[in-house]
Design a protein that fits this description.
With 117 residues, the protein is mainly alpha-helical. The protein is 71% helix and 3% strand. The chain has a two-stranded antiparallel sheet with strand order 1-2. Strand 1 and strand 2 form a beta hairpin.
């Protein structure tokens, strides 16, 4: 198995190469004939889309407010679910979840790294 530092170094090198290619790509787009016009059109359409969404949200009134409340509550409950699952796993216990159709769910682990300040 490879050393964790070697893998990290390879990731850093690939990110550096990717950054260079991204810069070349952006330069090429800037030199493309219709790109700037298309970007402007897309911006206008996004603004129009946002206006329509705001209008419909206003028409829905309390129903849309409830939608936003539910969305926030789901974020909160998912964080709580993660915290309880981690505590359960750290206690050496297994986690078993089933939905109303008896489908079983298993935890998925993800580790990421961030630079220290």
């Amino acid at each position: 198995m490879r050393n964790i530092q070697e893998i990290f170094n390879e990731i850093q090198e690939l990110k550096k190469e990717q950054k260079g290619i991204r810069a070349e790509y952006k330069d090429a787009l800037d030199n493309a004939n219709e790109y700037e016009e298309t970007v402007d059109e897309a911006k206008e359409l996004r603004e129009k889309k946002k206006q329509i969404e705001t209008m419909v949200q206003g028409q829905l009134g309390l129903r849309y407010q409830r939608f936003e409340e539910i969305k926030d509550k789901l974020v909160e409950l998912n964080e709580m679910l993660t915290d309880v699952a981690m505590t359960t796993l750290m206690g050496g216990k297994t986690i078993e979840l089933k939905d109303q159709y008896e489908n079983e769910y298993e935890p998925v682990y993800k580790i990421t790294f961030k630079k220290r300040n």
